[in-house]
Amino acid sequence: MTQATTTESTDVLLVGGGIMSATLGAMLTELEPNWNIILVERLDGIGQESSSVWNNAGTGHSALCELNYAPLNPDRTVGTAKAVKINEQFQTSRQFWATMVEEGKLGRASDFINPVPHISMVFNDDHVRYLKARHQAFKQHKLFERMEFSEDRDQLAAWAPLTMRGRGAGSVAATFSPEGTDVNFGELTKRLVQHISANGGQIRTGTQVTNLTKRSDGTWAVTTKNRLNSEDTREINAKFVFVGAGGGALPLLQKSGIPEIKGFGGFPVSGLWLRNTKPEIAEQHNAKVYGQASVGAPPMSVPHLDTRYENGKKSLLFGPYGGFKPNFLKQGSLFDLPRSVKADNIYPMTRAGLANMDLVKYLISELMKSKAQRVESLQEYYPTADGDDWELVHAGQRVQVMRKDKQKGGVLQFGTELITAGDGSIAGLLGASPGASTAVPIMLDLLQQCFPNHRQTWESRLTQLIPAYGRALDTDAALADEIMGHTAGVLGIQ
């Protein structure tokens, strides 16, 4: 092992320069301004992996348009519990961002969040019946009261003109939610990290963690190396470590040796988008239009035609098209997957893989698609689309959680998984969507699990940062109107 050239200490070490580390670092900066924080990022800039603007859909995930969050039950009713929870989580994130904007700590809100209506659109009789039932179930909830349903083609054309232009006969229906948003998580990440730095936090890019070792005093000895200067190797003694390294979190948590990571594995899924940057076309569409996922497709592969904003410029995005690469990060190693296989997770990974052969078949079929076939998929949502107007771009890597299961041996789990050591000295985050949109509530869970002795001390400031902290909006109409109206006004959204 290379001898460290420098040894230093810190209260908090954040590994990874994405939205999760940035959110936690910004929150701790507010809660404990005297704590020393160091953030290390392997790449040469902040927010360049999954948080980057073109590596994710930019949807402010609030379950307004994502049909997979509202399953059809065996009795033909539609389940709303997961959707309500996700919407509540996004409202928590919105509150935190709004307070930080009000206090002058994130700059202009329009630089990272913009109003973009969320639409669910379906194209056959069965799906139309489901969407109607979904709307009936959702309109009982305060958080979804503004959602509209229609089968009228003129109305649908008014909501999303490109989706109806040139569309042939056949069933079509949609729901429309005006309060939807597009979020540039890459820009938001940079703003949060700038806030950490402005308050004394140290930000080190081009710095890779090579090892984590628990010390006898309960702290962590974390070895880092400068990727541009091989002579700059450091040992950071940290009281608390958060591994927010996206797909890179699993191997780092495995290196830590904490028992809580035993049995966990990861299945990487890559993606592609079709992107249209022509202003004359982008200006004709202002919505995120989500449909039904293909049979066997993972939830994050639900097709959608999106308005995207980057530095104030409007573009269109369609996809994602699934794919497979064994690397856990877009700028990772092809050996990431095989290196992650350990004695404790090989069985649950095998069992989960065998139970998800439809996903494997789906990914193989996606990999074999030509551009013409991809454009054909696009034309289901934009019938008159010209393939020459669209370019193919690579999305970020996602690593789905594979974990032990008593009954099945192993399962493939969609969503996110917060892993915390028993003593709260280290934590990490595994998984994917709707991660970025729910970063704030995820970090609140982390604070409760890892810093239980600070809960009373922090409660006052947390309530300032998140006015509805600890309270549900969906069951309190007056509170929902107050909070959502205020945050919408501050953030410049509906």
Automatic annotation (TrEMBL):
Signal peptide: none annotated. Its cofactor is FAD. It comes from the Bacteria. Pfam families: Mqo. Coiled coil: none annotated. It catalyses: (S)-malate + a quinone = a quinol + oxaloacetate. The keyword Transmembrane helix does not apply. Keywords: FAD, Flavoprotein, Oxidoreductase, Tricarboxylic acid cycle. GO terms for biological process: tricarboxylic acid cycle. GO terms for molecular function: (S)-2-hydroxyglutarate dehydrogenase activity; L-malate dehydrogenase (quinone) activity. The keyword Oxidoreductase applies. It is an enzyme of class 1 (oxidoreductase). InterPro entries: FAD/NAD-bd_sf, MQO. Its EC number is 1.1.5.4. Transmembrane segments: none annotated. Belongs to the MQO family. NCBIfam families: mal_quin_oxido (TIGR01320), PRK05257.1-1 (NF003603), PRK05257.1-4 (NF003605), PRK05257.2-1 (NF003606), PRK05257.2-5 (NF003609), PRK05257.3-1 (NF003610), PRK05257.3-2 (NF003611), PRK13339.1 (NF009875). HAMAP family: MQO. This is Probable malate:quinone oxidoreductase. It comes from Kocuria subflava. The gene is mqo.
